[in-house]
Amino acid sequence: MLPKKGRVTKNVFHSINKEGKTFHTPLFLFSYIKNQSCQYAFVAPKKVFKIAVLRNKFRRKGYNIIRSLPVKSGVGVFFYKKEALTSSTLEIKENIIFILKKAGFYE
To answer: Counting Cβ atoms within 10 Å, is residue 46 exposed (0-12), middle (13-18) or buried (19+)?
Structure first.
């Protein structure tokens, strides 16, 4: 898990949804705003992951991947898609890196 100050708060989450830009990949929908802080969140919808254990597992995977990457400052939210159910951790990591490079948050 990311430290608490590295995760997105409710207020920031709502502002990202309203004002943020978005990217689509086969596994994610990524909404972000450029900001001085470095905060990220992973959302595993109940519609996609029916069991709470799976929702938590995929959120943890995302947080662990983000924690291991040298990420620049920025605030973003990753929304999992249905295709993520059958994907491996390596595929998830590649998608996250691709999104962060496209948004300008990864070196």
So the answer is: exposed
Tell me the pLDDT tens digit for each residue of 1-10.
Answer: 778 888 888 9
Domain chopping of the chain, boundaries: 4-103
Report the half-sphere exposure of 77 (CA within 13 A, side-chain side). Answer: 20
> Whole-angstrom Cα distance, residue 27 to residue 5?
26
Helical H segments across 1-107, by residue range: 10-19, 52-68, 89-103
The predicted model scores a pTM of 0.91
**The two structure tokens encoding residue 68:** 């291991």
**CATH architecture of the domain formed by 4-103:** 2-Layer Sandwich (3.30)
Contacts of 40 (CB under 8 A, 6+ apart): 2, 6, 7, 8, 63, 66, 71, 75, 76, 77, 78
Strands laid side by side in the 21-24 sheet: 21-24, 28-33, 74-80, 38-43
